[in-house]
Write a structure and sequence with these properties.
Elements (H helix, E strand, L loop, with lengths): L5 H11 L3 E5 L8 H12 L2 E5 L11 H7 L3 E4 L7
Parallel strand pairs: 1-2, 1-3
């Protein structure tokens, strides 16, 4: 399977004291969205929203929507690391 680095994501949530998270997943991982959401919520006591829209790469970030939703942190999976 995939290494989703959930511990890394959870550590980032805790480090930033984030309370509302938006997950953006590529289509291949969307069937696992609920499982990922539950694991993160259980370990961080946060509200985790799932972005059901498109995810076509690093240029397809729902920044405006995240702002409207009041999201503290947007986590994307399936993209190359930004440098």
């Amino acid at each position: 399977m995939y290494n989703l680095e959930l511990k890394k994501a959870i550590n980032e949530i805790k480090k930033n004291n984030s309370k509302k998270i938006l997950l953006q997943l590529p289509d291949g991982l969307k069937p696992k969205a609920k499982e990922i959401q539950e694991k993160i919520q259980k370990q961080t006591n946060t509200q985790v929203l799932i972005w059901a829209g498109s995810c076509f790469g690093a240029c397809d970030v729902p920044n405006a929507q995240a702002k409207i939703l009041g999201v503290d942190l947007l986590i994307q999976w399936g993209h190359s690391k930004w440098r």
